[in-house]
Amino acid sequence: MKENIIDENGPGALAEGIPTAQQIQAPCKPAEPAARSVIKLGVDIHSRLYVVVAQHGHGTSKPARRFLPGEFAPWVESLLRAGHAVHVVYEAGGFGFGLCRRLKAAGAHCVVIAPRKLDEARTGVKTDPRDALTLCQRLSRYLDGNTDELAVIRVPSEEEERARHFARQRQQLVAHRKRLEAQGAPQFPQPRSPFGRDSGGTNPATCPANCSNS
Q1: Where exactly are the structural domains of the chain?
Q2: If you write DSSP's letter for every residue of 45-89 in order, what string do you get?
Q3: Which residues are within 8 A (CB) of 205 and not within 5 positions of it... i.e. 6 or more apart?
Q4: CATH says 38-155 is which class?
Q5: 0.70 exceeded by the pTM?
């Protein structure tokens, strides 16, 4: 006697690889978006080279990387397009605040800090990768709530920065002119009377022979 096995989901539901009625009618759940990872970047900036140390979340800091000035911002923008939250810190210097404004416009979080000694271990040895690592570590502690780690300064607008630049140039020109005047003073002494300080009298040591007969 043949025994028929009937599944409650319908005939053929037991066949391998064939979905059941409930599986067909069940709505598909959208995939959950991946959590955004936080990337912290400590940047030691020089006129020709940027040295960068990155830390993903609270993981171990990555080895230092070197970028040309024109390469760093596009790299950060690529991280942002990949869905990462990027935090950047660097010290203020003579190169201005254009980099910070560009990174903020792209969606990164950027802070500029007042220059300070970065040799936390007091080794007396200064290297760019070590400075970038210290900046990255301090940024991580700053984001964790320790606001004393970074002396954040206000980033001026382009107009404010331009006005500061002109004022700084004027001060430098005035100081340079004063230095030139000070250097030229000993070479061009003021003329003095041949008769000494008192122009009304005569100095026998410098008076011509006929002065005494006058």
Answers
A1: 38-155
A2: E-SS-EEEEEEETTSPPPPPEEE-HHHHHHHHHHHHHTT-EEEEE
A3: none
A4: alpha beta
A5: no
